[in-house]
Amino acid sequence: MSSLKKVVPGVRRTKQAIGRGTTIARVPGRLWQTGLFQPLNHVLARDGKRLRAELIELSYRIAGGKGDAPLDLIEFVELLHAGSLVIDDIEDGSTMRRGQLTLHEAVGTPLAINTGNWMYFSALEKLQDLPLPPEQLMSVLSESISTIRRGHEGQALDLAAKVAEMDRRTIYPTVRAITRLKTGGVTALAAKLGAALAGADRNRQRAFHAFGMQLGIGLQMQNDLVELKSGTQFGGRSDDLRNARVTWPWAWVSRLRSEREFVELQCLLLESSEENFQGVATKLLDSISTVADKSVRRKMNGAMVCLAGAVDPRSAEALKKLAERIEAYHV
Question: What's the whole-number mean pLDDT along residues 249-270?
Answer without folding.
Answer: 96
